[in-house]
Design brief:
The chain has 16 helices and 14 strands. The protein is an alpha+beta fold and 406 residues long. Strand 3 and strand 4 form a beta hairpin. It starts with a helix and ends with a helix.
Length: 406
């Protein structure tokens, strides 16, 4: 009976109810769109970091993270292989890499590059490297030619079939030097990558650095990214901690994690501003409703309706308004964010450059994670419960005789 009474009371003044519902709905829509955009961009950055650099978990020499030099390249020993195999299906695949800075030259031209020794099949699984190929072909594991980024080719005036000379420092102070024909050219959207990357087959790069059977890192891509911390802990327990360590991408990129947390805090603050605006809208409606219904409430109390039940009716009205507003906001907000989830917004030159500086492709990606929508509902209901205390307090303090006469 109380639920029916509360529902009917809402629609006695349809315009007032719809105005209040609309304020809640638009607050929810704005919050959903904003959080979807921010979460989508965050996930876009995380995916970029994971696929292009760190992976989910890395096994490294225990000293490599603090001093990333070739002297701290780890031995890819049987111990490491067995520890990874013990993880079973939790690991989707592994990506071995050896990498370091070198000087690249052609005749009198030279520039600094970042040399990566990779297994093409593994890299393709991780970041679709071969799709970046704009000329030539990708090497096989036993080939002896280099594949270079477009920016490197332009700056050194290199074309297919030309020879690139590489000079660097190898393992334990050895001089690393080699000449390699250019067999392919890659193009990356990020300038830092496009202007520096040179790829060699893993075995060839190990020979170049005088570090056979050694890696800078063994990257693990997991079936469930949420288990990265658990996998890293299991690896640390299995491996000799005097020589090896395992780190998650969060440990490898603490500055990025801190930036994400700061951004999340800003989003929550802005979202709560929207919620408070919606809360004041509900509160204003409650004040108006209570003022208009004083005589009605006084009569109900005078004929025997208990104050507790009357207060419950007022509380239910507040909850109904909030529920309708939340459901309407989600119903309108979901198609909007789903459209942009399928069709990311391509950013203009200025904003696109900022995205590129952050290491992402210049697109604004949206997220449709369920927690985005659940979060709005929970927060609005918390605000509704707080606002709903006003009519409850008013009912318990109401002078029924004075109210019934007005």
């Amino acid at each position: 009976m109380l639920i029916t009474l509360a529902w009917r009371n809402l629609w006695r003044k349809k315009r007032r109810t719809m105005i209040t519902v609309s304020s809640v709905m638009f607050a929810v829509i704005l919050a959903i769109v904003m959080m979807s955009m921010v979460n989508g961009m965050k996930q876009q950055m995380v995916d970029s970091i994971i696929s292009n650099t760190t992976g989910h978990v890395q096994i490294q020499d225990v000293l490599y993270h603090d001093e990333p030099t070739m002297d701290h390249a780890m031995e890819y020993s049987q111990e490491v292989k067995e520890a990874v195999e013990a993880l079973g299906d939790a690991v989707k695949y592994t990506v071995p890499r050896i990498e370091g800075f070198c000087l690249a030259s052609k005749e009198v031209s030279s520039r600094g590059v970042y040399l990566m020794g990779v297994i093409p099949e593994k890299e393709n699984k991780m970041n679709d490297l071969s799709t970046r190929l704009v000329d030539g072909e990708m090497f096989a594991p036993d080939d002896h030619f280099a594949v270079i980024a477009q920016g490197v080719a332009n700056q050194l005036d290199l074309a297919l079939g030309d020879t690139i000379v590489l000079l660097g420092q190898g393992f334990q102070g050895m001089t690393a030097a080699g000449k390699y024909p250019v067999g392919g050219i890659l193009e990356f959207p990020l300038p830092d990558m496009n202007n520096t990357l040179v790829y060699l087959p893993l075995k060839e790069a190990q020979m170049f650095f005088a570090a056979p059977e050694r890696l800078n890192s063994l990257t693990l891509m997991l079936e469930d990214p949420q288990k990265a911390d658990d996998i890293a802990s299991r690896l640390k327990a299995e491996l000799d901690d005097e020589w090896y360590t395992a780190k998650t991408w969060e440990e490898l990129m603490p500055d990025k994690v801190a930036a994400f947390e700061a951004r999340d805090a800003q989003v929550r603050v802005f979202a709560w501003v929207l919620y408070i605006v919606a809360g004041f809208g509900i509160f204003g409606t409650m004040i108006t409703m209570m003022h208009e219904r004083l005589r009605e409430l006084g009569i109900l109390l005078s004929i025997g309706l208990k104050r507790g039940k009357l207060a419950m009716v007022c509380m239910l009205e507040t909850l109904f308004i909030s529920l309708i507003g939340v459901l309407a906001g989600v119903a309108v907000g979901f198609p909007i964010v789903y459209h942009f989830f399928l069709n990311p917004i391509q950013l203009g030159a200025d904003v696109g450059e900022v995205m590129i500086d952050y290491g992402m492709e210049p697109f604004m990606q949206f997220s449709i994670a369920p927690d985005i929508f659940i979060y709005q509902g929970i927060n609005i209901f918390i605000i509704a419960l707080i606002v709903g205390l006003y009519p409850v307090k008013k009912v318990f303090r109401l002078d029924m005789i004075h109210a019934a006469r007005n």
